[in-house]
Fold this protein.
Amino acid sequence: MTLLELEQVNFRYPDGGIGLDGCSLAIQRGSRNALIGANGSGKTTLFQHCNGLLKPQSGVLRYAGAELDYSRSGLRQLRSKIGLVFQNPDRQLFSANVQEDVSFGPINLGLDDATVRRRVSEALQAVGMADCADKAVHNLSFGQKKRVCIAGVLAMQPELLVLDEPMAGLDHRMRIELVAVLDGLHARGITLLLATHDIDFAYRWADRIHLMAAGSCAASLDAAELAGRGDALTSLGLPLPTVVELHRRLSAQGLLPNNSAPRTHAELLALLESTNNAKETP
Amino acid sequence: MLIEQSAYANRWRHVAPAAKALFALGGLIAAFAARTPFAAVILALFICVITLAGARVTVRRYLRVAAPALFFLTISSLSLAFSLSVNNGVQTLPFHLTPEGMQKMSEVSARSLGALAALLFLVLTTPIVDLIALLRRLKIPEALLEIMVLCYRMLFVFSEAVHDTLTAQSARLGYATSRLALRSLGGLAANLTVQVWQRAHDLHVAAQARNNDGPLRFIEATFANTSRDVAIAAAGGSALLALTVALS
């Protein structure tokens, strides 16, 4: 079922810059979506449309089948369903204290004190920051700030979580931890949409990959079929995922069966191992 | 930043802010009630010892935080002590010490010391966020509190921005000569102005994304044993008052 849908959305910034240019895109409920595109291809503009922060000059956005309602109450409704996590945590956090900041969204939803407290502690738990509830925001590391940002949006219990380049600036370990957090959210039924520059990550993590170029969505494909759509990637100047290239070369040399399609490095290694074992014990 | 570190890392961090504020208020009232300089100085020492021994604030940190205030106190008491004589002083300096001046100086500065100790006790044991939450419960107008919250948060965001810009400028010899330094300083100011503008806009958008439609509201921290702490602080504050009255 389609949760969020954009149809021929156009948006131009007041300074004349093109934000979106005939952008059409659909997000299925419960799916993991990666949005790939060069800097300036309109990813952030698209995200701000999802949450009703920007209003399209022409074209339609639909949420769960209904056209977006840009009235005060309509936006309220929409923003409680779609959570937006910004790229730079310092531009999103404005309380000096962790749990205060996380409480900001739920309080804006008009919830009572007990519910707010419960949601705040649940959200901090979900991102693994329960120990830091009392800390000052400026004493946190970059990765911790990022998680507080996610908690602040989670506490509003969104159906769709939109993250603008969540991996930017994180070290390897923090990335792995963040992916674990995202997988936990996905398991709870939250639909995820994130922007990334990392095609390898998108290929192994996402169900569906959307390619953005010059303000519109050039292609939306299932991650599984990405290997066969190298043309779509090359036309945007993007490389194939390394695991795909490696697998192709290995199967061309007869080292791997052609019918398999490993999505991660680990899967490829395991496949190589098992093929080797099969050859050695005929 | 020193105050900040101490406020978050002292033994009484989790004592109810209301209690700490009440105790500090007791100290302030006692400082005003002290009729002799001796009583006020004893009061200041007493509160200082409580801050150091009770809340375990280190002596070094305490002195570094107190130093600027003590400097100003010294300057202003000197100006109180000397009085300007405008009569026919031919052979004498126009400034001289007078007994009344000395008396006045010792009274005022001893009282100020007491008040300073009480305020230092409060700020060195209580983070600003707790103080703001306390003020909110005391029904201070929302607008003032929001400004406090944002200023406090922005303080750190901007000190980081200043630091980053300064580093970037220094790395490219921006401060090599005084001429260049002046130029770079101008660049820094211009850069910060634009950053202030952008960040304010970004925060507004971020607030909207989380469904904000006006006042910035947050939950308040809860403190275990608030009533017990307040009772102890009330007793402590009254004791301070009784002590100074008895001594003077």
In short: Chain A has a mean pLDDT of 87. Residues 49 and 55 of chain A are 6 Å apart (CA to CA). Chain A touches chain B through 41 residues (CB under 8 Å).
